[in-house]
Each structure stands twice: as structure tokens, then as C-alpha cells.
Amino acid sequence: MATFWFVSAPLYSHTDWGGMLRTALVLQASGHEVIWISEPKLESVIRGVGIEFQPIRQTGWLWPPPPLPDITTLPPQEAVNLRYRRALDTWLSENIVAEATQALIDLRNSLDLPDAIITDPFLSASALAAEALAIPLIVAGWTAQSSLDETRLFPIQRHLGSDSQQRIQRLCDQFGLQGENFSKGATPSIISPHLHISYFTRNWYIAEEHTLLPQNVFVGGLPQKPQDTPPEWLANIPQDVPLALITLGSVFTGDLGFFSWAAQAAAGAGLLPVVVVGWNPIEPESKQALIKALPGGTRLVNWVPFDHVLPRTRLMIHHGGMGTTHYAVVYGVPQIVVPHAADQRIQARRVATAKVGLHLTAHDVRQGMLRDGAKALIRDQKVQQTARNLAHEMASLGGVQQAAKLILQVAKLASSQ
Fold first, then answer.
1. How many other C-beta atoms can be found within 10 angstroms of the C-beta atom of residue 352?
2. How far apart are alpha carbons 61 and 7 in whole angstroms?
3. DSSP type of residue 108
4. Residue 74: DSSP 8-state
5. Starting from the edge strand earliest in sequence, which strands make up the sheet with 52-55, in order?
6. Second CATH level (architecture) for the domain 232-396
7. 365 vs 268, 294, 347, 370, 372, CA distance in Å?
8. For the chain, where do the domains classified as CATH 3.40.50.2000 start and end?
9. What is the β-pairing status of strands 137-140 and 195-198?
10. CATH number of 3-221+397-416
11. What is the pLDDT of residues 376-410, one digit of tens each?
């Protein structure tokens, strides 16, 4: 029996990445010991699916970030600089990364050392602690890529790249490490020398093919068969009514205008909108205004079971979170992606490149292009077939079962050395 630590930031979306939590469940069902490590706010979710949970006070992920000033009053270059720096601080604020690294190292006093650490792709503390404990690091849900050519970077990117290198070096010096789990180029990132698991296909990264490193493995994903009954609101919708699923995940749910515009676009394309607003509090006045702006018949819910809803969904309109995008691809659902931040822009471009949907900007939405896009995708048989073909290719790669096998291979190899 092998032992594995899964480490994630304390956000539900950071347990996914296309299959991270489900990979942990597969390993546990195979008789291995799995311990999920994060901050206490994630405990009920992890214990709720039957995995042992070990709380630590800090994971090194700065969330929520400090309040953002009104960037409309800033010069454009200063606003761009602010966005880049906030992104860097989120995953590489030295004080909290150091605290989280020490917390993970200290777990050796109360837990058996694992055969590998499987990490959320953006936790610097996992990379440092794995080296300190001489344990293989495995990155779930994110590819290993070579650093960008410094000559192609904007000045702010070059400056922050240098800043990143200095921060990583100071953290390594603090813990007496070499930084073996970080890239060394102009744009440092967490890189496992052992294994990066992507829950997509290799072709999903076709625009980045030249940057992919050898330790990447692509396992795709499969639809999940429902293990329970559908929620009452869904069961009450006739089976022949086509649905549009509209979501902004768990973080960006404050954009209520997006929900109303997307729902109107879906209804205009002949679909019944299902709007998922998450669990973040909404002021009663704002919620009432949203309800009034939604087309008649729209279902407004906090959460949906994807395995029940997606087989009935003809279109997804969303923000481009990796987990959300992955579900749409796995179920062969055409999608419209309106990215709100960070890697969502990359996912949106990949959706468009794969020809399984559209990438729209916030400006496009304000210009009414959601409605045109929804109608176009519903009518475009070629896009629909491409989405189904990609779903078939994803399923052929094995999904989380294959991911679990790969993790076991790394652990076995490490134990033999």
C-alpha cells in the first residue's frame, strides 16, 4: 500500500483541474492511503466525499487578494502592472509560502511520509516541501512547459520574472534547497521533474506544442454516471427541452450582468437557461434585479450536478475555469467562453482553436455578440460534431483511472531508488 498527500488551496475549484479529487478517490478505492491537506475551510468538502483531511493553517495561496483599487483611474500601463503583480503575489508571497512550507514539513512529525505529493499546480509550498522531504512531486491538472523566450516578454513580464526568481531563491535559501521543483527560465513556475498530469488531450495544447516538456502525460476524461437521483427542479423539466448551462464557477459570481446577458442569449437561441450563481452572498436587492432581468422559465440555482445536467445541455456559457471547461469538453457540449481573469484567457483560446466553441471578450458581450454566438453554435452541425469527436478522444485516454496508474508508477520508481 502506498501513501499519498494531495495538497490544494482552500478553494473548491482548486480540488478539480479536470480530475484531481477524483484521482484521489480512485487511489483510495484501490487500497492506498490518501490524505488531503489544505486549510480548514475545505475540510467539510473533502471529508464529505470520504477522504481523510489534514488541516494546516496556511497553504501559501493568497486568497482573497487585497481589494483592487479603481483601475479606471490609473494610467493603462500602471493598471497592467498592478494586475501582473497581484497575480504573482497570489502564488508567490514569500511570507505565507514560507509558513505553508514549514507547515507541510512539520507534518512528518504526525503523519507517515508519503510516497508522493500530488499538488494543485500553483502551490509553491508543495514544491518546496517535497524537495525538503525528498519526496516526488506530481502536478495535477497543469502541463510542464519550457519558459518563454525573454526577448518576447513585455518589460513588466521581464521585471516580474526577475522578481519571481529572486523570491524563489530566497525561499530556497531559507530552507536550504536547490529549487528542483521550479523552472529556471525567465518565467519561473512550479515544475515537477517526475510527472505532470493533464486531464485533456495533447492536441488541446496544439498551439503550445513546441513548449511542452517530456514529463507531461495526457489522460483526458470520461463522463460520470449519476449515482443519485436528479434534483427536483431538473426532473420537472421535460426531457425534450434543451438546456443552456450558464456559470461563472465559484469565484467570479459577482458579475450579475453576465448572467442576465447569457440567459437572454440562450433563450433567444431556443434553449432553457440554467443559471448557476454559486454560494457567494448576493445582496437581496441585486438578486431581485437579476431575477427580473432573466427570461421567463430560467432556473436560477446555486449549484448543479454536472453528471445530471450536462447530458441534457446543448450549450455552456462560462468564464473559462479549467474544471468547467473540462466538463464541457468531456460531455461534448459546445461552449462560449468569456474569460474573467488569468488562465481563463488561455482556456478560451484553446476552446476556439479546437473549434468546439467561441472565445468572446467582455467588450463582445456588451456589443450583443453573445446572442449571435449562441444562435450560431446551436445551428452549426460541424462544431457540434467536433465537440463530440473531442469528447470521444478524451474518453479513450482513460481519465482518472489512468492518472492513478501513472501516480503509482512514479511512487514505485521512487521507492526502488
1. 16
2. 11
3. G
4. S
5. 52-55, 33-38, 3-7, 116-119, 137-140, 195-198, 216-218
6. 3-Layer(aba) Sandwich (3.40)
7. 15, 16, 18, 6, 10
8. 3-221+397-416, 232-396
9. parallel
10. 3.40.50.2000
11. 999 999 999 999 999 999 999 999 999 999 999 99
